[in-house]
Amino acid sequence: MHTDLVAALDVGGTKIAAALVDGDGALLVRAQRPTPAREGAETVMGAVAEVLAELSGSPLWGRATAVGIGSAGPVDASAGTVSPVNVPGWRDFPLVERVGKAVGGLPVELVGDGVAMTAAEHWLGAARGYDNALCMVVSTGVGGGLVLGGELHPGPTGNAGHIGHVSVDLDGAPCPCGSRGCVERIASGPNIARRALEAGWRPGPDGDASAAAVAAAARAGDPVALASFERAAQALAAGIAATAALVEIDIAVIGGGVAGAGDILFAPLRRALQRYATLSFIRQIEVAPAVMGTDAGLVGAAAAAARVGPGGAVAVRG
C-alpha cells in the first residue's frame, strides 16, 4: 500500500538529521551530518542540502508529500526564517524557502525544536491521549511547546510555549535573553552546575563539572548538589504552574539531558508543584518524563508538517 510519507528535518547546533516518516511515526530512511556551526550560512545550508539529497535518493522519496522542519531557535515560522543561537552564521536565514527549492516545491512547515518535541510526545509519547499539555526540553537551554484542545499550538512564529523565558524570579540574575530570573537561567544544565560550583560543590577526580555530575553527587547525598537541583525544580514548578493558570494544562512532560537525573529532579519538582499549583483547576497536573528520546525532533517535525489527526493518524496536508 503506497501511503503518504513526510520528510522531516531536525536542525541543531551539533547535528542536522533528516528522515522519511510514515503515518505510524516510523523513521524509514535516515540521513545525518554534523552541523558546521562555526561556518558561514551557505556551508550550513550545504549540510542541509546533503541530508535532503540523501533522502531524495531513496526509492521511497516519491511518496513524500510535505517537509517538516524542527529547528533550534529563535525561529520565525511566519517569515520562514531561522536564527539559531548556536549557529551564528544563520541570522534570519530563509530556511523554508531554501528547503522548498531543494525538495522541488513540496509544502514546508517550520517550528521551533521545543514545539517539535511537543508534537512527538503528543503523537506517540508521554502526552499521548492528553488534550492539553506542556512539553519541555531541559538541557543546555530550556524550551517547550503546547498542545491545547487536542491540537499542537505553535503560535504565529512557531515559538509558543517557550517556558524557558518565563520570568520566575523578578529580581533574579540577568538572563542572556535580556530579561531577569528566567526559568532557563535557573533550571538549565549549565546553570545547575554553575550554582553548585558557586556554593562549594567540587567535581570528582575526572573533573566532570556537568549537571549530570551534579546529579550523581546529589544521588550520593551531597547537600550542595541536592540544593542546586531543588532550586531548578522550584523554577520549573513555578513556570509550569504559571502556564497551567494561563491555559489549563493536564500534564507537563519533561525531557532533555537534565530530565535524565530522574528522581533527583522529579521528586523535588512534584513537591514544589504542590506549593505553586494551588488553584482548584491546576492542582491535578501530572508530571511525566518524556519518552521519545533523540528521535523526538524528527518525529515531531513530521507531526508538525502532517498535523497529526485524531487518534494518532497522520492527516497530511498537500
UniProtKB/TrEMBL annotation:
Domain of life, source organism: Bacteria
Chain segments annotated as transmembrane: none
Alphabetized InterPro entries for the sequence: ATPase_NBD, ROK, ROK_cs
One Pfam family cited in the UniProt record for this chain: ROK
Family: Belongs to the ROK (NagC/XylR) family.
PANTHER family given in the database record: N-ACETYLMANNOSAMINE KINASE (PTHR18964:SF169), ROK (REPRESSOR, ORF, KINASE) FAMILY (PTHR18964)
Designated name of the protein: ROK family protein
Species name: Streptomyces gelaticus
